[in-house]
Design goal:
The chain has helices at about 5-30, 35-40, 60-75, 75-80, 85-110. By secondary structure, the protein is an all-alpha fold. The chain has one domain (about 1-110): Methane Monooxygenase Hydroxylase, Chain G, domain 1. The model has no long low-confidence stretch (mean pLDDT about 85).
Length: about 120
Amino acid sequence: MPEGYLPIFIFMVIAMAFPAVTITAAKLIRPSAPSQTKLEAYECGIQAADTARGRYTVRFYIIAILFVIFDVETVFLFPWAVRYKQLGWFGVTEVGVFLAILVVGYLWAYKKGALEWV
């Protein structure tokens, strides 16, 4: 029985060794001559005005999260569209309720001012 696992074990060893071997080979082969110019951030030929580690407003994250939530929820419409004819009016009602909940959530976020950028 354990001999049935031998190909899986060999595959796991190869899968773990491949990234280590390729990264090591790339480190040995590539030329390495770092200079101050090469280590600078490139911004269209202009010197960087400040570090990239600035603070972002919380609104940016709120809008990003809302986008992900509404985008992921609309993905759930695809299976319904595939089975549209088989579901009939039950499916139409089901999607209507789903979209109503989605619109209520969107209106709630809009009323709370979560979509205001300024």
